Amino acid sequence: xxxxxxRNPRYAALNAGGNENTRRLMDASTRLADEMSRxxxxxxxxxxxHYWLETIINHVPDYIxxxxxxxxxxxxxxxxxxxxxxxxxxxxxGKTDFDLHPQHLAMAIAEVERRVIETGxxxxxxxxxxxxTKGRDRWLMTxxxxxxxxxxxxxxxxxxxxxxxxxxxxxxxxxxQAHLLEMIANGRPLDEFFRELILLIEALVPRIRGxxxxxxxxxxxxxxxxxxxxDETYCGMIHGVEIGPKAGSCGTxxxxxxxxxxxxxxxxxxxEDYREIVRPYEFxxxxxxxxxxxxxxxxxxxxxxxxxxxxxxxxxKELIAxxxxxxxxxxxxxxxxxxxxxxxxxDALTGLPNRALFEEQVAEALEALRGTGQWAVLAFLDLDNxxxxxxxxxxxxxxxxxxxxxxxxxxxxxxxxMVVRVGGDEFILLLNGLPCERDIVLARLEDIRAxxxxxxxxxxxxLQISCSMGVACFPNQGKTVGELLANxxxxxYRAKELGRNNLQVFTEEMADKAHExxxxxxxxxxxxxxxxxxxxxxxxxxxxxxxxxxxxxxxRWRHPERGMISPGDFIPLAEETGxxxxxxxxxxxxxxxxxxxxxxxxxxxxxxxxNVSARQFRERNWAAHVAAVLAEVGxxxxxxxxxxxxxxxxxxxxxxxxxxxxxxxxxxHLAIDDFGTGYSSLSALKRFPVRRLKIDRSFVExxxxxxxxxAITAAIISLAQNLGLRVIAEGVETQAxxxxxxxxxxxxxxxxxxxxxxxxxxxxALLRQTDVNADGI
Length: 777
Prior knowledge:
The chain is an alpha+beta fold. The chain has 4 domains: 2-163, PAS domain (Beta-Lactamase), CATH 3.30.450; 169-343, GAF domain (Beta-Lactamase, 2-Layer Sandwich), CATH 3.30.450.40; 355-506, Alpha-Beta Plaits; 522-769, TIM Barrel. The chain is built from 30 helices and 29 strands. An 8-stranded mixed barrel has the order 20-21-23-24-25-26-27-28, surrounded by 4 helices. Helix 15 packs antiparallel against helix 16, helix 16 runs antiparallel to helix 17 and helix 23 runs parallel beside helix 25. Residues 124-176 form the PAC domain. This is EAL domain-containing protein. GO terms for molecular function: cyclic-guanylate-specific phosphodiesterase activity.
């Protein structure tokens, strides 16, 4: 009930200079008691002094009193008399606290006063809750000192008590605000925060009860937030109330976006439709304040109910404003956390769950199905040719297509199913609790594929897009999430291999092929580490002179168990896995190094021709890398020719053109390989800084028998001549082919007619036996 704060730093001023006034009052009271004990009523001076002293202490707003050693009041000022419910001094003289207050409260006071009398030590700055509340929570700061007669004997105590309720309320408010802000910072649940906020305000404003209502997401209704001391039935009745211009205090405050003070519920038209709801609870006043966001958007309402007809005073209005402000901070913090959580677990573009949320929830879904005899179907889905939409219509159209597709998939599944965007144009479907019947499962999945493939209109254009889908069923085709994902992924890639726009269900054969593929990939990595690659060189011959002017470097894999492996057996896997980049780098270095060695050995100054993969060509600063390799090897750039395919260049014409000009600036020659098999724009072709076109072997092999191939080949040669480019035909094997090419104006040939690809030593021997010149340089 009370605590001795005489050593508390907060009251150091009271115990030092600040106690001087209190001590003076105590001394004056002691002298008064001494004077009274001597009883000199006949002396008019003494009577006057007694009158003035009594007048002074009666004008002091603090409690001032003296008691004897038995706790009986000897004297008290008027405020002490009145606050104890008495009329005059004579009514309190001789009474004890046990006569005035409940026993447990009086016992606490008597214990403190007994200690002062027994020890002779004063007690300063006791904070205690007032026994007389005056309708509100009151606190007093009390000091008590021994009352001594002239001989120094303790004959009682003198006490002074000051009302510190306002200061205690301010302290409690500050502490409460700090606690509430800490709750916000720590992310405590919103309902827990609301409860603490309301209890704080209820403790500071007498005879009121608080309520917080939240505005629904559609902005039309108020939903129960917290009301720790309101009847639950009443809270249930107002939960979901529509806001409006005449919807009680809270509904109207949310509608208007401003405070609504209703002093008398039964006399205010705003409550006309709600009076019967509130009547059983005997509330008469309701003050409601909207809770705003920083942008002044209404988030909810903070309301105080009173059983008396009244309006809030200025201090109470400040408390209400503070409470509404803190509630707004807490709600916005929670909304921000919810948004962050949603963003962490959902795709920003489509709003679908992402891979992280899927992995959190899918294990539980599978566990729930275990032993039920039902299937969970996991499908990996990839949109076919989505990149073409992005490239032709732009990324905005691609994004819109993804959103439409996501909406269609969501509409095609049940609430218990999941649709997940993995990234790009890839999605995962999880269909829960399906019967173990293959036909039913496939029918459901085909319905989803059909929904995706339905025509859609984007930016005024009608589009259709198909998908490739791979399927694995729990538990037959995977007992864990990892197994299902891996198997469905394998099935999807199988669907792509079969021409896209189809559905494939996982089989053990797919797993065997995937395993074999992993082994080959591992072997390929080992081949790089163990330097198992080597180069063969095929001569390129000038048709006019019949002499070798260049050599194309062709990669071979010398496998320790399977012997020599041709590029067609491992280059596609290298392209798919990205290993083509380190392999291509090895080829470039080895070819340049061999060419430099031939030059140093006194052989003719040949050009070495190296094929470039799309992955290599897209590497950042690739032209600078080529220059670094040439400098490292010591080969002049004019002796290196890089062969680029049409499809490689046309994937990104502006980017390819920039890289080609960088290579041209270095001094490296460029050729277009397999010309005629890809798609080239003639307007783009004339801008390419290339020196040579290479006619693909597919046009040469049936010459001169095939009339169409003859026409195409002749056209390519004519086109190259008009563009100022040299032409080389590959795959030349017969004299008839050579004669046709020479007659058509072809500049150079390459093929078995002259020589198959040779190891470096054999190629060198061929050069030494052949009349070679450098006219082709």
